[in-house]
Amino acid sequence: MVLTTAQRAIQVLDALSRGSAANSYPRPGVQRSADQPDDPAFTSVPEASEWPRLLAWLGNPDPGATVQEITSLLVTMGVATPVLPSLAWPLIEAVRRCPDHRSVPTTTLAHLGAVLDRWEAQQGQLDAVTPAGILAQALLVQDLHCLADLCSNAGQGWASGPWSRRGHRLEQALHVRLWHDSGYVDTAGPADPLAMLLLLDTPAERIAILAKQALKRCQSALARNQIGSVFLAWEGAHRHRLTDQARQIAELVR
């Protein structure tokens, strides 16, 4: 049986929660100062304590509740608070599983787009060189693509092209930054190349290289409490049908 993202999230939620360290990541929404452009503390990334919430959204047996919670959060938040772009991903997963939500209000899509616009403008992730920056960029790519899919499949005619193009541009920027000669390099830690597994546009020959390195890199990432990177690698292994690697990563966090 092929498991959905939600079902796989349920399987490892407890393990990832037990492995989380509350201070593994800087606080979300902290703006970087001009004289400290590369300090990890000035990069908006998820705290380890936030990963269980993301996984709970992805694995919620009541997808309608997830749709309502994220929609309400967006309305409450508006565009006043910079937030990690990890909202469109669980939202589209919930919509796909919820027969009562064949469409998404255009106001919700507008709120999602505004959050992504503001977050990207404030954080300047294309200039980040920390592991946190790479992870955040991979999540931004994920959310841009998910927002484009929401617009195309549930958006009542809401244009998806701009979001899709932005997602592909940022994805290509990640490849250019991390690929050197014959492999992806660590710009600042073992988690960097793991993020590339999440991206669907990663060429097959590069996926094969990453597959050979995945377990060792996940072990190194866990040693640094980079739980989020391991989850993304696990999800990416499933996306690219790396069955053995996905199983090994899952066993690593049990």
In percent, how helical is the residue content? 55-70%
What fraction of the residues are assigned to beta strands by DSSP?
Answer: under 5%
Please give the number of β-strands.
2
Helix-strand string: HHHHHHHEEHHHH
Could you say which structural class the secondary elements and strand pairing correspond to?
mainly alpha
Rg estimate, integer Å = 17 Å
- The coarse silhouette is globular
Unreliable stretches, pLDDT < 50, 5 or more residues?
A: 5-44
Which strand order spans the largest sheet, edge to edge or round the barrel? 1-2
Average pLDDT reading: 73
Cα(first) to Cα(last) distance is 21 Å
Query: How is the main sheet built?
Result: 2 strands, antiparallel
Tally of discrete structural domains: 1
How many DSSP helices? 11
Topology record:
Layout: H1 5-19, H2 51-59, H3 63-77, H4 88-97, H5 106-123, H6 131-154, H7 161-178, E1 179-180, E2 183-184, H8 191-196, H9 204-223, H10 227-239, H11 243-252
Antiparallel strand pairs: 1-2
Helix pairs in contact: 1-2, 2-4, 3-4, 4-6, 5-6, 6-7, 9-10, 9-11, 10-11
